[in-house]
From TrEMBL, chains A, B:
It catalyses: S-formylglutathione + H2O = formate + glutathione + H(+). Its EC number is 3.1.2.12. Pfam families: Esterase. One of its GO terms (molecular function) is S-formylglutathione hydrolase activity. Serine hydrolase involved in the detoxification of formaldehyde. The lineage of its organism: Bacteria, Pseudomonadati, Pseudomonadota, Alphaproteobacteria, Acetobacterales. InterPro entries: AB_hydrolase_fold, Esterase-like, S-formylglutathione_hydrol. Keywords: Hydrolase, Serine esterase. Belongs to the esterase D family. Transmembrane segments: none annotated. This is S-formylglutathione hydrolase. Gene3D superfamilies: alpha/beta hydrolase.
Length: 291, 291
């Protein structure tokens, strides 16, 4: 299922899983200017002659390319629907920016799926181009993936990434869902810290990286956006604010299925509980399977 | 679902999951003479007036009480069958034995679910009594668990633990299954290292801690033992040897369902792939649900 005649990838590990195969790879990333890691799950039956739909997974702060795959239960449902998964790392590694390892919410593990424009971050912190262009193109050249049926799903910081990328390029990302996303980073502490560092003090440059502001600026997704949010999430009121995204969606007419779940928090225990519905949501759009 | 009037437990974290609740606790263990950690998943609907069956989960080398729960996908199936889960840590922590942190396969993270008899290990390395007596009794006093419907499941070193405890006390452990268990530790490197350290050089004392030798000595389990084993497991030929357990089971008439899976390795990716069958196996015995 991997065809890499040019030797672009280093295979770090591969494991049979749920009838398919999950692999961990590294490569020299042009966007990041560094070695980058990602993971791919290929379901049984995929081949270059029979390419399968794919969902990209964007994890949250502190995670790696392994986290979403091992902790969310997503693979068993992707396998059931015949859908592949691509999981990115959450930041460049080893960029050498002073202080990049000092905080969990900035620098290493906290790339926010955008291209930094401010020195010294702009040299390597280019996860926007990596996730939006390089990783889909690379994986669709080397694996049996159908780029015309590509969805995106994320958690927390990764939920922010999924919403922003899908709203900016709906022709590229045909389906989108999120768990506990940061929907309005421009006005919450995590986002203000990251954006002021990566993008600078001029807040007008932040709007292209904020899902709520994108909606208000006229960016829409042609499908229903599925969002699950726990009501016992410790970050709900200070960092996440799905109510603001819902209000914006209502005002512009964006179809949104925002589900609030009493008692659930921000963890992968929460994601495990509702992941089946998310894969079904993507499958309905990407494969035509009834939701 | 937790009733702890005596304040025996410290609650480290609790999370809603799959309609139920997974909690992480610590307590002063008598068996270990140390603070010990464990985790409990309680499905929806359990109460002290409506106690539920329980499966104890024993993880492998290097793991903690969290590993099996977060990586195996087990919770969603336990929730579906209305079964609780209890997950132990894999060794005492902070016993202070010289060298206990030096190797992944001895000491910390490698308690082998037995009581050491050799100094200085015997002071705290008493995971046999902990898993066999203290933890079931503690959790069945404080949680809505039905101790008359108690099963045990493990992986690798934990598969060894599950088989040994179930064969020695089938009246206590009503159902048993394992992933890639160490079935004959007395003759493989992991077991020889652990047993010679914890039990000493007299191999006659090892027999009570070896599932294959227990079978040969007449210990049987009244139910079918379910074992899944990957044929691409890197430890299959040197450490695991399920063929030896199968031969012993055949010779003594122990019912065994040993399933070999081409391409699968020793990881939680393998466990994820077959965990549903294991929970169904236990449910059929513990709840009477058809398998």
């Amino acid at each position: 299922m991997l065809s890499d005649p040019g030797g672009e990838l280093t295979t770090r590990a591969e494991h049979a899983c749920c009838g398919g195969r999950v692999g961990f790879y590294s490569h020299a990333s042009r966007a990041l200017g560094l070695e980058a890691r990602f993971a791919v799950f290929m379901p049984a039956g995929a081949s270059m002659a029979r390419r399968v739909p794919v969902i990209h997974l964007l994890a949250g702060l502190t995670c790696t390319e392994e986290t979403f795959l091992i902790k969310s239960n997503v693979i068993r449902f992707a396998a059931r629907h015949g859908i592949a998964l691509v999981a990115t790392d959450t930041s460049p590694r080893g960029a050498g920016v002073s202080g990049e390892d000092d905080a969990y919410d900035l620098g290493t593990g906290a790339g926010f799926y955008l291209d930094a424009t401010r020195a010294p971050w702009d040299a390597h912190y280019r996860m926007g181009t990596y996730v939006g262009d390089e990783l889909p193109h690379l994986t669709e050249r080397l694996f049996a993936l159908d780029g015309s049926r590509r969805g995106i799903m994320g958690h927390s910081m990764g939920g922010h990434g999924a919403l922003v990328h899908a709203l900016r390029a709906p022709q590229k990302w045909k389906s989108v869902s999120a768990f506990a996303p940061i929907v309005h980073p421009a006005i919450v502490p995590w986002g203000e810290k990251a954006f002021s560092t990566y993008l600078g003090a001029d807040r007008t440059t932040w709007a292209a990286h904020d899902a709520t502001l994108l909606l208000k600026a006229g960016h829409m997704h042609p499908t229903t956006i599925l969002i699950d949010q726990g009501e016992a999430d410790q970050f709900l009121h200070d960092q996440l604010r799905p109510d603001l995204f819902r209000d914006a969606a209502t005002s512009v007419g964006q179809a949104l299925d925002l589900r609030l779940h009493a008692g659930y928090d921000h963890s992968y225990w929460f994601i495990q509980s509702f992941i089946e519905d998310h894969v079904r949501h993507h499958a309905a759009i990407l494969t035509g399977t009834p939701a």
